[in-house]
Specification:
The protein has about 270 residues and is an alpha/beta fold. About 30% of the residues lie in helices and about 25% in strands. It has one domain: Spore Coat Polysaccharide Biosynthesis Protein SpsA, Chain A.
């Protein structure tokens, strides 16, 4: 059973300065909910109960958000504002939140390795909160079905413009059906000339636990960081990585354009309800 979803949340969010000087980027709100809460809700809907969060200095707001605020709840109790806390209360009742700190920013692979003590099972999910996804069935829920079918690591992918491949890990592989590829090549942030395709990995993974040993032995790669794609490539050489072209829409909320697109999209949905 898959039960733990790991959230790397130690980054500085420099693209949103000065807002992120005191507020974690994962706590930036799209409408009335922070990005991280959308991610936790997606993981919960996919059957994950343990939310393992890798934080850093200045990230206490994350722990406070998923905790009881006695003063606030006392002030709004039995008022017409009390319902605003219904969703977060339900999340807190259904989930276990566990935390550790990443002391140095050494890449996504290092962040995942830092979360190793929080993961005690054969496979687990990784969700990057600034990749906000809107789908009738959550992206992680879709990926759980793929994992159950192939019983190996799964990465979510989408097609991107060739001019944008240098922002992503790019895969190539054997096409299994309209949505799935068995990965045989993977390059982190290649130039358009180097890219084996335009299929880009986005911030959703299901990883088998052997990824930790691969990450622990891995030397720094692109930009001097521990890249998750390098360890995934070692799994792929054994035929143990499936790339899944998910159903839904993804917003890159790590930049201002994507963040505003997400805000407009969810506001339109809110008004239509």
């Amino acid at each position: 059973m898959l039960s733990t979803c790991l959230f790397p949340a130690a980054g500085y969010g420099t693209r949103f300065l000065p807002a992120t000087k005191a507020i974690p980027k994962e706590m930036l709100p799209v409408l009335t909910k922070p990005l991280l809460q959308y991610g936790v809700e997606e993981a919960l809907a996919a059957g994950f109960q343990n939310m393992a969060i890798v934080t850093g200095r200045g990230k206490r707001a994350i722990e406070d958000h998923f905790d009881v605020s006695y003063e606030l709840e006392h002030q709004i109790k039995n008022t017409d504002k009390e319902y605003h806390l219904t969703e977060i209360r339900e999340i807190m009742d259904k989930c276990n939140f566990i935390y550790t700190r990443q002391n140095e920013m050494k890449g996504l692979g290092h962040a995942i390795l830092t979360g190793r003590p929080l993961v005690n099972q054969k496979a687990f999910a990784v969700l990057l909160a600034d990749d906000l996804c809107a789908a009738d069935e959550g992206v992680l829920s879709q990926m759980v079905k793929i994992y159950e079918k192939y019983n190996c690591s799964v990465v979510a992918i989408q097609e991107v413009e060739k001019s944008q491949v240098n922002r992503y890990g790019i895969i190539a592989g054997e096409k299994l059906d309209d949505q799935c590829y068995r990965v045989n090549n993977m390059i982190e942030k290649p130039s358009p000339e180097e890219a084996p395709s335009n299929l880009a990995i986005i911030g959703r993974y299901i990883l088998t636990s052997d990824i930790f040993d691969l990450l622990a032995d891995q030397k720094p790669g692109k930009n001097g960081e521990i890249q998750i794609t390098d360890s995934l490539m070692k799994q792929a050489q054994q035929g143990k990585v499936i790339a899944y072209k998910f159903h839904g829409r993804r917003f890159d909320c790590g930049n201002l354009d994507g963040f505003m697109d997400a805000s407009n999209f969810f506001y339109t949905q809110f008004k239509e309800r």
